[in-house]
């Protein structure tokens, strides 16, 4: 499979589909279209591309069921009841279709609190990464049965954008009822598709989001707003139509929809500065000479090379790494100080036996490691400013 030129090198994609994509007018699931979606995702997986699916539809399916089986007066708090009833029906259908393609899927229900709360955010990210590593497609949805204030605010658009940011996705694809963004309501005959929105351009300033048709009202503005939150982070985005022959593959391989160009490629120096800005003061991990040499070669820190732990920190905190009393690196920890204390000096395959779980074989992964020369450079920049 050859992705369109703008997406060359993309290895992890978040795909968002709305209720109108996967349900019929009566609210029932459109199994034919769902099957096409799953077939496209399966082909991406077989091509070595990881996919996270953000799928609406639970409320629509639940409402349809309630209308058939409950009298009008019994349909209290319909929105939340509908979600609780429709979600299992939705995920069961997905599961069956993935199994038809000899693939597996999983369900993850999130609320905005899962992104606001640091520990829950890290746990969700770790869970998704483990699923993807095992070729299991995570299917995410807003947990509407317990989310009161967010319902009907286009939240799955923002959920998809937040997920793309959380898991460091390369691209986000949003499927909607129109072939991308138009300069005006696509119901007008002279409406023109906007093929690309360059990063930092004023293209969006001239777009009229208010329209005379149902297609032109709501929805698109929410999607564009969500997309513009992630393009500054280097994440590419496409908004495309549910009417494509291959709903997911066509916009990824052809000039369809609207492509939102990101800020120039990921800057590792910016990431290092960001990690150092989060560093926990007076927290250290002491390592032996073997670990010191490995880390200087940008290897990950394993528990075997750890001698001692100082200070109180949690998973996700950035701490200093010392050897022979000198700080030579910093890094983001996969475990808190309590867990590191218990696994120090031991092999990675012993972690679960020692602390009851294992989220990573590394205490600090190489991608979250900053060596001494970067720390010195950052400190100099701070003094200059």
UniProtKB/TrEMBL annotation:
It catalyses: L-glutamate + ATP = L-glutamyl 5-phosphate + ADP. SMART domains: PUA (SM00359). InterPro entries: AceGlu_kinase-like_sf, Asp/Glu/Uridylate_kinase, G5K_ProB, Glu/AcGlu_kinase, Glu_5kinase, Glu_5kinase/COase_Synthase, PUA, PUA-like_sf. Its EC number is 2.7.2.11. It comes from the Bacteria. ATP binds at residue 16. It holds the Pfam family AA_kinase. Residues 283-364 form the PUA domain. Its main location: cytoplasm. Substrate binds at residues 56, 144, 156. Pathway: Amino-acid biosynthesis; L-proline biosynthesis; L-glutamate 5-semialdehyde from L-glutamate: step 1/2. It is found in: Cytoplasm. Keywords: Amino-acid biosynthesis, ATP-binding, Cytoplasm, Kinase, Nucleotide-binding, Proline biosynthesis, Transferase. GO terms for molecular function: glutamate 5-kinase activity. The keyword Transferase applies. PANTHER family: GLUTAMATE 5-KINASE, ISOPENTENYL PHOSPHATE KINASE. Catalyzes the transfer of a phosphate group to glutamate to form L-glutamate 5-phosphate. NCBIfam families: proB (TIGR01027). Belongs to the glutamate 5-kinase family. This is Glutamate 5-kinase. It comes from Halobacteriovorax vibrionivorans.
């Amino acid at each position: 499979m050859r992705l369109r030129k703008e997406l060359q090198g993309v290895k992890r994609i978040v795909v968002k589909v709305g209720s109108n994509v996967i349900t019929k007018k009566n609210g029932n699931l459109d199994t034919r279209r769902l099957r096409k979606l799953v077939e496209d995702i399966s082909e991406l997986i077989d091509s070595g591309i990881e996919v996270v699916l953000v799928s609406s539809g639970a409320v629509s399916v639940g409402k349809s069921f309630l209308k058939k089986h409950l009298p009008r007066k019994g349909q209290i708090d319909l929105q939340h009841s509908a979600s609780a009833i429709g979600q299992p029906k939705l995920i069961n259908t997905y599961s069956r279709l993935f199994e038809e393609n000899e693939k597996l899927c999983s369900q993850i229900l999130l609320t905005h609190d899962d992104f606001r709360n640091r520990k829950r955010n890290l746990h969700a990210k770790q869970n998704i990464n483990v699923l993807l590593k095992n070729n299991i497609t995570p299917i995410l949805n807003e947990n509407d049965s317990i989310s009161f204030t967010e319902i009907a605010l286009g939240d799955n658009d923002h959920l998809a954008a937040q997920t793309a940011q959380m898991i460091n996705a390369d691209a986000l694809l949003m499927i909607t009822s129109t072939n991308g963004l138009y300069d005006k309501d696509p119901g007008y005959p002279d409406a023109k598709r906007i093929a690309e929105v360059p990063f930092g351009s004023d293209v969006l300033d001239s777009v009229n989001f208010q329209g005379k048709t149902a297609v032109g009202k709501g929805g698109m503005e929410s999607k564009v707003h969500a997309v513009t939150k992630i393009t500054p982070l280097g994440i590419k985005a496409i908004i495309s139509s549910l009417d494509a022959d291959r709903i997911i593959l066509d916009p990824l391989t052809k000039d369809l929809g609207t492509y939102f160009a990101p800020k120039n490629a990921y800057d590792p120096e910016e990431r290092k500065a960001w990690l150092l800005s989060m560093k926990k003061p007076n927290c250290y991990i002491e390592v032996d000479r073997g670990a010191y040499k490995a880390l200087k070669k940008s290897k990950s820190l394993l528990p075997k090379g750890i001698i001692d732990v100082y200070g109180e920190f949690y998973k996700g905190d950035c701490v200093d790494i010392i050897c022979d009393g000198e700080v030579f690196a910093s890094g983001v920890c996969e475990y808190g100080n309590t867990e590191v204390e218990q696994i120090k000096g031991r092999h990675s395959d012993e972690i679960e036996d020692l602390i009851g779980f294992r989220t990573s074989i590394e205490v600090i992964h190489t991608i979250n490691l900053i060596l001494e020369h970067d720390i010195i450079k950052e400190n100099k920049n701070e003094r200059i400013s």
